[in-house]
Write a structure and sequence with these properties.
single chain; alpha/beta; Rossmann fold; 2 domains; two-stranded antiparallel sheet; 15 strands; globular; Peptidase S8
């Protein structure tokens, strides 16, 4: 009889394989390093025609300004060979003297600021916003039932509490089950490496390894399959190791209600959302992979004959660290936006997001401040293959206004059923998870009235596309929305800068957003008189329209084929060549 551990492993492996098979785009492909800047007609890859634009439209032209782009993220390696010459530098600040020379409240902010650190160090891990909220609501409502007398405010809080309990249970179940598979795979990989006296084994070593039991034999099958689908054993090995770290952190920190190091490592008055001056000047932080990759896409040096080519030339990258491994906090996001605006940024890239809000008002105020100062915000739509017209995704362009509150009261969502703890055999984060997927939610009727509620006009929401002009053009992980996702841009196998002078391929709407931020910066370098809403309009009107249908899994978990205009406002992929030609007509 098959033991229970093997049964569970096989079942979970089967689920992971199904999830992998649902990924429409193959990673077993060799793409040009710069494919996202190439032209569909000239090169056969659905890039954004950046190189064509430089060659045909900008060859003999000089830009009118150097555009500052703020990267609000998890940290940027400011010493990277392909970024060090394109960094924003605060010329009013004397580096390393421990004095706030320019009087802006931030000491030695030479290349930006870190809002999640202090003299004691840096905050690397944090909870999901869901967990932080449960920490507040659980003592109030854990003993409450549907028969408990509650006033209207308490009823709304109780409804939210029940939803959060269900979401937490599902996330914890998924993370625990996925982590158990990763532990089993890692055990075999490490055993094979040790036996062969190697740091990293080969696929041949895996094949020659004599499994101890049925479980290990099943793991060998998973490894072979994964190596084929990822294009090589080396890529699979790397993905598994990164996945292990991700889910380990998720269980230890992101989903752990007992973990909270904010007070110790940041030391701000977290209850005061208007507090501005806290943090330190370490803009790299303990994990700068994501932010460094984003920065390279926007503006990696195009003239140094090394590395990659960013979208924009004549750009300066301002590094602002607010995103830990976990969910960013609204207070930090708002302060990051304000810092960027006050220090001259004209474009802000935000490749992050979360399902719950803590203090949206403070973010709304910062967004309005950016709009009043002529700053464009570019935001990643998210990587859960969810419909953003239905599901919440924060931050977003909509304000928590009286009109929004009235709409919310008139259109309450039905509460989710209480979460039932899983049985042993049930199935099990402006970057795409290595392993595992978020659960698919059930659809609710869509009322387009809400999309006319008060919102920012300096905001672009970006989904991720793949390289091939076929029905798999929508990256399978990308969120979408006929009303809430404005454009799509390349976000699949994007090669860019990572810490320590290295370069890697990453996927996600986190990669698509900086493609658009780079395009916006490029437009503004040559047409600095344009307002944020005009740049947004130019980018959206100049997309390469997708004339055919694309397929994806909808909220019912059904594979459907729809016109591209059904998954984003513009119905296309951003295009540098078209955008610059259109910008020329604006006076």
């Amino acid at each position: 009889m098959m033991n229970m551990n093997l049964k569970k492993l096989m079942f979970l492996a089967f689920l992971i394989c199904l999830q992998t098979l649902s990924f429409a785009q193959s990673k077993n492909v060799q793409l040009p390093t710069n494919w996202f800047n190439l032209d569909l007609v000239e090169n056969g890859f659905f890039g954004i025609s950046t190189e064509k634009a430089y060659r045909e439209l900008l060859k003999d032209r000089k830009p009118k300004q150097n555009t500052i782009v703020a990267v609000i993220d998890g940290g940027v390696d400011i010493n990277h060979e392909d970024l060090k010459d394109v960094l924003w530098t605060n010329k009013k600040e004397i580096p390393g003297n421990g004095i706030d020379d320019d009087g802006n409240g931030y000491i030695d902010d030479v290349h930006g600021w870190n809002f999640i650190g202090s003299k004691k160090g840096n905050l690397q891990f944090d909870n999901l916003e869901l967990v932080r909220l449960l920490r507040i609501y659980t003592p109030k409502y854990q003993s409450t039932t549907n028969l408990t007398p509650l006033d209207s405010t308490q009823k709304e809080e109780f409804r939210l509490y029940k939803k959060m309990v269900g979401d937490f249970g599902k996330k914890y179940e998924d993370a625990s089950n996925t982590f158990s598979v990763l532990i089993a795979i890692n055990k075999v990989l490490d055993s094979v490496a040790k036996i062969n006296n190697k740091k990293v084994p080969t696929l041949a070593d895996i094949d020659n390894y004599k499994a101890d039991d049925e479980t290990e034999e099943q793991v060998k099958t998973i490894i072979r399959k994964g190596a084929r689908e990822d294009g090589s054993f080396e890529k699979f090995y790397k993905n598994i190791k990164e996945g292990y770290e991700q889910y380990d952190a998720m269980l230890k920190y992101n989903l752990n209600p007992k973990y909270d190091m904010r007070a110790e490592l940041v030391g701000d008055d977290y209850s005061n959302s208007n507090q501005r001056n806290y943090g330190n000047n370490d803009v790299k932080g303990p994990d700068a992979m994501h932010g460094t990759h984003v920065s390279g896409i926007i503006g990696a040096n195009r003239s140094n004959s090394i590395g990659i080519l960013g979208v924009a030339n004549h750009v300066s990258i301002m590094a602002i660290r607010v995103v830990p491994t976990g969910d960013e906090r609204d207070k930090d996001v708002a302060n990051g936006i304000r810092y960027a605006v006050d220090n001259g940024a004209k474009v802000i890239n935000m490749s992050f997001g979360k399902a719950y809000k803590w203090d949206k008002k403070v973010v709304d105020e910062a967004v309005k401040y950016a709009e009043s100062k002529g700053v464009l915000l570019v935001h990643a739509a998210g990587n859960d293959n969810q419909n953003n017209d239905i599901e919440e995704n924060y931050p977003n362009k909509y304000f928590d206004s009286p009109e929004a509150e009235a709409y919310k009261l008139a259109h309450k969502k039905p509460a989710k059923p209480d979460f039932t703890p899983p049985k042993p055999m049930q199935n099990g984060m402006g970057m795409r998870p290595t392993v595992g997927r978020s659960s698919i939610v059930k659809p609710i009727p869509l009322d387009s009235t809400k999309f006319n509620l008060p919102h920012a006009n300096n905001w672009i929401e970006v989904g991720a596309s793949a390289y091939k002009d076929d029905d798999n053009l929508k990256a399978d992980f990308s969120n979408y929305g006929k009303y809430n996702v404005d454009v799509f841009a390349p976000g699949f196998l994007i090669n860019s800068t990572v810490p320590d002078n290295k370069y890697e391929d990453l996927d996600g709407t986190s990669m698509a957003s900086p493609v658009v931020a780079g395009l916006a910066a490029l437009i503004l370098s040559y047409y600095p008189e344009l307002k944020p809403n005009q740049v947004r309009e130019i980018i959206m009107k100049s997309v390469s329209k997708v004339a055919h249908k694309v397929k994806y899994k909808n909220e019912r978990d059904e594979t459907v084929r729809v016109p591209f205009s059904e998954i984003c406002v513009s119905g296309g992929i951003v295009n540098t060549y078209n955008a610059l030609k259109l910008a020329e007509t604006y006076k």
